[in-house]
Amino acid sequence: MAKTLYQLGETVTLGGGVTLSRDTTNATVTGQLQQMIGAAWTDVSISGSSFNATSNFTTDVEVTYTTLNGSLVTVTPTSAGSYRWKITVSGGTPDCGTSTFYVEFGVYTYAEAPSTPAITSIENKVSHVDVTVNGDSGVVNYVTLYNTNGTSIGNGSRSGNGIITISPESTGLYITAIAYSYNNGVYSLPSAPVTMFLVYS
């Protein structure tokens, strides 16, 4: 393997220094991709997750798995986790029996931070404040209100863009609203602060 850790969505190529020593020719080489699920290695059934190289495949001294029958062995895992190729070499001339080898690698997810959201309006309402937030689609948006001392006096959230209703702890003071977004375990940078004098209407 050229490397042992791949990002989800990246194509994995079997090769890059993986060698097997076999003193035989024209052996049968098969491969099956497996994923660790629970506590057991389980066969994976996706495009490219198995191969069978039986025609005129030579294993004189070394086998390199960069190509099999002239084609690259590639697969694109569809979920994160621990994987391994189960590779079996059997038969050949002379027949050296059957040997099984494993090549392990990992697939991880990397979540990019959402874009910084914007507060587009703040409205005084009866006993609460409506803060309108605009950010990326599919994220959770949060708003926190602060008083002039920098103390949080209220917060709220919603899925997607729109109005977040917050009931601050006190009125008749200047407040500053700051928004941020969250997605897949990652928070955005905070929005530009918006300040207003809070008096319920």
What does this structure look like?
This protein is an all-beta fold. The protein has two domains: 104 residues, Immunoglobulin-like; 81 residues, Immunoglobulin-like. It contains no helices and 20 strands. It is rod-shaped, with a radius of gyration of 29 Å.
List keywords for this structure.
Immunoglobulin-like, mainly beta, rod-shaped, 20 strands, 2 domains, 6-stranded mixed sheet, 5-stranded antiparallel sheet, 201 residues
By oligomeric state, this entry counts as single chain
Q: Report the uncertain regions.
A: none
Give the helix proportion (percent range): under 10%
Shape: rod-shaped
**CATH class category name of the largest domain:** Mainly Beta
- Radius of gyration equals 29 Å
The second-level CATH architecture of the largest domain is: Sandwich
What CATH calls the topology of the largest domain is: Immunoglobulin-like
Give the strand tally: 20
Largest β sheet strand count, sense and barrel closure: 6 strands, mixed
Tally of separate helices:
0
Q: Tell me the distance between the termini.
A: 67 Å
Q: How big a fraction of the residues is strand?
A: over 45%
Give the count of structural domains: 2
| SSE class | mainly beta
